[in-house]
Every structure is written in structure tokens, then in C-alpha cells.
Structure prediction request, 183 residues.
Amino acid sequence: MPRTSIKITKPDAKLLEKKSLRLQLQHLLRDRVIHEMPIVGFFVETDEEFALIRDLIHGISGLGAGVVIFAPENKKSEVLPFDLYDEAMVIFYDHTSHKNLFSGCDMVVCFSDQAVKKSLASHIVPVAFSQCRGVTNYHPNRETGNAFTFEKKDQWCIFATIVRAMETYRFPFDWKHILSKQL
Prediction:
């Protein structure tokens, strides 16, 4: 019987950290996420974006995904609807504090170029407005693209795109392929 050699490599530190941060988010979300469903982050910066995602939160949490809203620290003083807190975790951040938990998301809904840039840098699949720079829509047959894009900033287009991303998330090979396109 021929000998085979096995090369044992050290696990990627970033990958281990991402898994650990995802587990932390999953724990913080407690019963708001069904096991093996994605954690969807919303990176919102304006009142318009808050209004847009409000109804989306109910639909996405109804699909079993965990929902995390990342909002700027200056929005903390504003009154957010209480029903958002029932279905989503809201994290207020300054420019450095969100980085750790942000990396625990599987996908992040992005409305701006800056949000897309942060998502790609954190190795997170963006669900982004098609006008944002740095994203190409995922095409499963061609195995191309680094994101899931929506054409219009309306609830139904965004919801359909998130559902498409969640369906793809269920196929680890395809999901890892999308992540590899971000490098």
C-alpha cells in the first residue's frame, strides 16, 4: 500500500474569528434565528433607509434568519419602533465599535459604496443596490459575481434579493465560491 502524506496546515485565523463572531451573534439573537439559517445584517445610515427596511425585518425574521441592524451612534437618541427590537438586534456604532460583530454576519444589505466596501473587506456577502461600486451580481450558472444586487430601492426588490441570497446560502459550495470572488 503506497504511503500518502497529509499536509496539516494551521487554520486561517480570520476564518476562525469569523466563526467565533457568528456564534456570538447567534447567541445574542437567541431564539430569533433558526439553526443553520443566515444572519442578515442591515447597514443603515439614513432615515430613508430605516423606513425602507422596517417592513423587511418582519419578513426576513419570519423566514428564520437572524436580523441585525447596524445604525450610527447618532441615531441612538431617536426613537426606533419597539417592534423592531422584537425581531432584530440593533447595534449602534461609532466608526470602530461595529467591526467585530459586523464580521459575524453572513450577508449585509448595503445601500452605499462605503457599506459595500466594509462588507467586502470583512468577507461578508453584500446584498447591495446595483448602482454601488465594487459589486457584480451573482450568476449561479456562470459562477460569477461577488454579491446579490437589487435594481430599485424598494422593499419588494430588496426582499426578493435577500431571499435569493438565503437560498444560495443553503449551498455551501456556491456560498464559498461567492466569498472567494471577494478576494
